């Protein structure tokens, strides 16, 4: 009896562990976050604290990867949260994805006076508009948030890429109104522009028409976006502007033109989306890209 009693006692003592074994067998191997937030210097950042900082800014530049679904989801969440925190009338939504010559259509759609079908047919939306930007515009329309297309019309950037900024000299005044004021000064020493020159194999952006013209086309876009961001801001408003990360990384591009164009200093915050194989810490090459860096797994599904 003593032997069986001892065996029974041990079984009872082990019972909780035995019951736990099936659960352990199906337990997840570890956390699999869809993204992580870091400061410029690589410290973990809290979403609510970041949001509070963004709400205090005049301009927030969200540097996205155009085909990243997490970036687009976060853009929508930040728009919703800023609208709730500040009030819809204190928020302006700016978009690289729409060019200045279709701004009347953008404004009509945001005001609810233009149907979806007509807007999409006439406004030259990007191919991924339906999945990546339509939800954002629909939210802005429902909340009566001002929406501004800020980009230079592509045809003018293409003309510059082929023939330099001089190609714009003969444009009529009504077409120049779609662009930043001309003549445009280009700082070829900006890190982003120097990187473009290096990608084209030119030792100097100031020599060799190919790289110089492409940089001038990029500068035309950066300057035009900065110009219409600034023009669209009213007192105590925050502009949340969506653009490709290259337009604002390292506080370059749009940021540089905002600083030179603005009559009074602007409070600017930047975000940049990057991909990494691991999300535990910020890779060295992604440090200082922006005020806040959003890290997404490099195997995340793309929208195109």
Strand line-up across the major sheet: 1-7-6-2-5-3-4
- Sequence of secondary-structure elements: HEHEHEHHHHEHHHHEHEE
Tally of strands:
7
Overall pLDDT score: 90
> So what's the overall shape?
globular
Hey, roughly how much beta strand do the residues contain?
Answer: 15-25%
- Sheet/helix structural class: alpha/beta
- Which blocks of ≥5 consecutive residues have pLDDT under 50? 1-28, 203-208
Helix content: 40-55%
Query: What is the helix tally?
Result: 12
What does this molecule look like?
By secondary structure, the protein is an alpha/beta fold. 44% of the residues lie in helices and 15% in strands. The chain is built from twelve helices and seven strands. It has helices at 2-25, 47-55, 69-86, 103-111, 116-122, 129-132, 134-143, 154-163, 173-176, 191-199, 209-231, 254-261, and strands spanning 36-39, 59-64, 91-99, 146-151, 238-244, 268-276, 292-297. The protein has a seven-stranded mixed sheet, sandwiched between helices. Helix 3 runs parallel beside helix 7 (134-143).
């Amino acid at each position: 009896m003593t032997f069986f009693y001892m065996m029974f006692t041990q079984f009872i003592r082990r019972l909780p562990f035995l019951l736990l074994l099936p659960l352990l067998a199906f337990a997840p191997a570890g956390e699999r976050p869809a993204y992580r937030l870091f400061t410029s210097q690589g410290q973990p950042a809290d979403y609510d604290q970041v949001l509070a900082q963004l709400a205090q800014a005049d301009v927030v530049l969200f540097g996205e990867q155009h085909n990243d679904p997490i970036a687009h989801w976060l853009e929508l969440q930040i728009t919703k949260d800023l609208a709730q925190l500040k009030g819809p009338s204190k928020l302006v939504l700016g978009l690289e994805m729409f060019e200045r010559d279709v701004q009347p259509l953008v404004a009509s759609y945001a005001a609810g006076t233009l149907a979806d079908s007509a807007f999409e047919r006439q406004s030259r939306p990007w191919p991924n508009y339906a999945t990546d930007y339509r939800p954002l515009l629909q939210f802005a329309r429902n909340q009566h948030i001002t929406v501004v297309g800020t980009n230079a019309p592509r045809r003018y950037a293409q003309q510059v890429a082929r023939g330099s900024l001089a190609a714009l000299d003969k444009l009529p005044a009504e077409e120049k109104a779609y662009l930043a004021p001309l003549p445009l000064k280009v700082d070829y020493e900006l890190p982003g522009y120097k990187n473009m020159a290096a990608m084209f194999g030119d030792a100097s952006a100031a020599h060799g028409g190919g790289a110089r013209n492409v940089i001038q086309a990029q500068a035309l876009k950066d300057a035009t976006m900065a110009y219409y961001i600034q023009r669209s801001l009213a007192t105590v408003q925050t502009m949340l502007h969506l653009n490709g990360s290259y337009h604002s990384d390292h506080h370059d591009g749009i940021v540089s033109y905002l600083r030179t164009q603005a009559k009074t200093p602007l409070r600017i915050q930047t975000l940049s989306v990057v991909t990494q194989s691991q999300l535990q810490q910020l890779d060295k090459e992604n440090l200082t890209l922006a005020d806040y860096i959003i890290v997404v797994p490099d195997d995340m599904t793309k929208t195109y």
